[in-house]
Amino acid sequence: MNLFRTIVLVAALVGLGSGLVLTIVQHFSVQPLIVQAEVFESQRTEAEAPKPHDHEAAGEHDHLAAAKADLAAQEAHEAAHAHDADAWEPADGVERFGWTVVANVLSAVGFALLLVSASELKGGLTSWREGLLWGLAGFAAFTLAPSVGLPPEAPGVTGAALEARQIWWIGTVAATALGLALIAFGRSPVLAILAVALIAAPHVIGAPHAAEAPAIPRKLEHDFVVAVIVTGFVFWAALGALAGALRPRFGGA
Amino acid sequence: MSHADLRPSAASAALNPSRAFPIVAAFLFGVVIIGGVGFTQMAVAHNAAHDHRHSIGFPCH
């Protein structure tokens, strides 16, 4: 079987398995906290939403101007939060859970593609234990490193501009993954020093930070960060070990 | 037959250009999937993958 098909097939199986593990762990760890945080998030959204203009205060004579002001406030509010109120969203319950499962599995397949293809550069995984070590590296690069500067945000925790955070997140993951690879496979101390500098660099540059205070209690914010990181750890351990266990069954390619 | 026999020299096999292309292609496939699920700002994609994005620690809102 050619190598591309082998990688995709292994990653699909690994993604399905680890995506389901993620779903189960997340359902009991992160999900209840998301639901709690959303209560605070929606309370704040309601508090900030523009109120219908006050007839007593505005006087009855200037309806058009008041209506325009309402509309402008509404638009500004929507733009600030980048939420399209009219867009489809899954109904709570089975539908919402179903889409979460789909997203979990798809994303897990994506992560498995990265892990399995990267490990092929070293000749391919040979055992579950080797895969587990790769999974721990994945956890360090994709969960730990970005969480240092951008702690996982519960609903109601407002960050800096989304694009800036996404760019920092991606840059940090890439620098950490490359640094870990240099440490593991580099042949000289100079490369190891370079690797340490590369892993530290995004944090020296610093993550974009929000001016706005979170809408949720401090304890909930904290518990959410812990839940996401521990869930990520279990997910990556499962993903790596599964990849290591399955890859040898598909031959040398 | 052990699988190790099929890969006598992992390092040299890894540098073979005929292996490099499928490896890079599979890697990019993974990047596209993660980008689509985790980073697309389209409202529908955001709403469908909302809980997933929060659980993975992707920048979401």
Which percent band covers the strand fraction of chain B? under 5%
Strand content of chain A: under 5%
Radius of gyration of chain B using CA atoms only: 18 Å
How many strands, which pairing sense, and closed or not: the largest β-sheet of chain B?
none
Pfam family, one (chain B): CbtB
Protein name (chain B): Cobalt transporter subunit CbtB
Keywords (chain B): Membrane, Transmembrane, Transmembrane helix
Transmembrane segments (chain B): 20-44
Reconstruct the topology from this structure.
The complex is a heterodimer of chains A (253) and B (61).
Chain A: H1 3-29, H2 31-48, H3 55-58, H4 63-81, H5 94-120, H6 128-149, H7 162-185, H8 189-205, H9 218-246
Helix pairs in contact in A: 1-5, 1-9, 2-9, 6-7, 6-9, 7-8
Chain B: H1 10-15, H2 17-39, H3 43-48, H4 50-56
Structure description:
The complex is a heterodimer of chains A (253) and B (61). Chain A is built from 9 helices and no strands. Chain A has 253 residues and is mostly helical. Chain B has 4 helices and no strands. Residues 1-10 of chain B have low confidence and may be disordered. At the A-B interface, helix 1, helix 5, helix 6, helix 7 and helix 9 of A face helix 1, helix 2, helix 3 and helix 4 of B. Chain A: This is Cobalt transporter subunit CbtA. Chain A: Keywords: Membrane, Transmembrane, Transmembrane helix. Chain A: It comes from Methylopila jiangsuensis. Chain A: The chain crosses the membrane at residues 97-119, 131-147, 167-185, 190-211, 223-246.
